[in-house]
Design a protein that fits this description.
With 273 residues, the protein is of the alpha+beta class. It folds into two domains: 10-39 and 243-272, no CATH class; 43-234, FepE-like (Bacterial polysaccharide co-polymerase-like), CATH 3.30.1890. It is built from ten helices and four strands; from the N terminus they run H-H-E-H-H-H-H-H-E-E-H-H-E-H. The protein has a four-stranded antiparallel sheet with strand order 2-3-1-4. The radius of gyration is 30 Å and the shape is elongated. The protein starts with 6 loop residues before the first helix and ends with a helix.
Length: 273
């Protein structure tokens, strides 16, 4: 049974391996320097968004009793955070294949992305995988606000990409809501012509006013599902890689490799003798 090494023996072993550890340290620092020299640095772009409902509709609907909702032309359902389903759809659409399909048609965007990745993305699914990896969406505390971050080697493109993503996702939801409300308006108008009962006509009229208000919001020249609280901006200096962290990791790995290599080299020397 092997005897466990004491602390003194471990210290002696480290002292005996000091030359190998120092050489490993130097090699690790050299590798870290070469990594920092050849790697393409990336800038970090940040944008903060919030649900558009509180901006466009206010908190009027949240203070109304459930049985009065049908009489409100302004109402859309909200979660406990104060955000509508449109905002959550925006968050998930931002990096999905539907938005990727539209981005794929923008040659300027795809050229920048392919240059950064040293590859050629050809399908919406591939672009969605890239966006899921490169774009982060983080909640900000207990608020419905979201912080969107994106890293790219080009400082201006990093911020422009976030603006582009917001525009694409928001316009997709706006388009779908506009088409949906228009279809409902046409149906309700036809029903109103056929209905004679006053109570039924009043209910259909209220529903029609709701859809017309949604149509109005969809036609306004402002964000529909998510407003920009803090516009997209890129860091003035590259945020990746971190030089200090790279040198520390290189030095640590080099020292460990030197310490591991020393007993192997010592045993091989003994065998040769």
């Amino acid at each position: 049974m092997d005897k466990e090494m004491s602390l003194r023996e471990v210290v002696n072993l480290i002292w005996q391996a000091k030359v190998a550890v120092c050489l490993g340290l130097i090699m690790g620092l050299v590798c870290a320097f070469l990594f920092l020299y050849f790697v393409t640095p990336k800038y970090k772009a940040v944008m903060i968004i919030a649900p558009a409902d509180g901006y466009a509709l206010g908190d009027y609907a949240s203070t109304v009793e459930h049985d009065q909702i049908a009489a409100l032309p302004f109402w859309r359902p909200k979660s406990s955070e104060g955000a509508s389903p449109d905002f959550y759809r925006f968050v998930h659409t931002l990096r999905g294949p539907s938005a990727s399909k539209i981005l794929l048609q923008d040659e300027g965007v795809m050229t920048r992305i392919n240059q950064s990745e040293n590859s050629e993305i050809k399908s919406p699914e591939e672009l969605a995988v890239y966006l899921a990896k490169s774009v982060r969406i983080d909640p900000m505390g207990a608020t419905p606000l979201r912080k969107i971050t994106y890293h790219h080697s080009n400082q201006e493109f990093a911020a422009a990409m976030l603006r582009k993503l917001h525009l694409v996702a928001d316009q997709m939801i706006r388009r779908d809501r506009r088409q949906q409300s228009q279809s409902r308006i046409e149906y309700l108008q036809n029903m109103l012509k056929k209905t004679i009962n006053p109570d039924h006509r009043k209910g259909i009229t209220n529903l029609l006013m709701q859809q017309e208000h949604i149509q109005m919001l969809a036609n306004l020249n402002e964000a529909y599902s998510a407003i920009i609280v803090e516009p997209a901006s890129a860091s003035p200096k590259p945020t990746w890689p971190n030089p200090l962290f790279s040198y520390l990791v290189g030095a640590f790995i080099g020292m460990v490799m030197g310490f591991v290599f020393f007993p192997m080299r010592a045993s091989s020397i003994k065998e040769s003798r």
